[in-house]
Amino acid sequence: MRVTFPCGGHPTTGYLAVPKSGSGPGVLVFQEWWGLVPQIERTCDRLADVGFTALAPDMYSGRSTTNPDEAGRMMMALEVPKVAADVKGAIEYLAAHPACSSAKVGATGFCLGGQLALFAACTYPSKIGACVDFYGVHPAIQPDVTKLRAPLLGVFAEKDAYVNAQVVGELAAKLTKAKKTFEFKTYEGVNHAFMNESRPDVFDADAALDAWNRAVDFLQSHVK
Fold it and tell me: Would the pTM count as exceeding 0.90?
């Protein structure tokens, strides 16, 4: 269901999915560069099906697109102070919601959303209990991994033109230097956005299922 909550002094919207039990550990789900589209809502629903209370905040204030050029412009228009305020508002709303049973919340997302999930975990380390970053990327939003406290699962694609092996290696080196707890999984032969079932040009069912199960297990282990 769509919900409205305050972020940085202004109202924003999001999509909230609650498990049939009525409550569960909280997980934030951050959108791809397309916006808060039905595919992200379905991701929240899938998390609710396995017992989580999932919230996807609308980082584009109601806008979405199917055009890659427009998506790129909307992604690049994001400003770090507003992103930080919106993330803070989403964390506070989810953590205080009666359907959220965990003291801390998890954070996950895809492409832009993967970077936002890691940004959330680094910017508000006392509030995030686990982070799952699916091939996160944004040139202007650079999380300070030295502040990360939550365990991190990174999921990547071998044929990713954006988050390639060099980018993944550099992130691993930063995390290792900062002595952070993380594990990375790169799926062979798949492309960026291989998790997105609404994009048959890149979706890979086998890799997506394995990555989903891996992510769910990780969140269940660390967000309680």
Answer: yes
Single out the catalytic residue among 122, 160, 204, 222: 160
The angle formed by the CA atoms of residues 16, 17 and 18, to the nearest 5 degrees, is 120
Contact 129, 104 (CB under 8 A): yes
Question: Is 97 known to be catalytic?
Answer: no
Residue of 86, 122, 131, 192 marked active site = 192
Q: What is the dihedral of CA 164, 170, 172, 178, to 10 degrees?
A: -160
Task: Tell me whether strands 53-57 and 10-17 are parallel, antiparallel or unpaired.
Answer: antiparallel
Supply 131's token pair.
């982070």
- The active-site residue out of 111, 122, 133, 138 is 111
User: Options 3.40.50.150, 3.40.50.720, 3.40.50.1820, 3.40.50.920; which CATH number does 2-222 get?
Assistant: 3.40.50.1820
Q: Identify whether 160 is a catalytic site residue.
A: yes
Return the pLDDT at 1. 94
Model confidence pLDDT, tens digit, residues 7-60 = 777 888 999 999 999 999 999 999 999 999 999 999 999 999 999 999 999 999
For this structure, is 192 an active site residue?
yes
Q: How confident is the model at residue 6 (pLDDT cuts 50, 70, 90)?
A: confident
CB of 12 within 8 A of CB of 93?
A: no
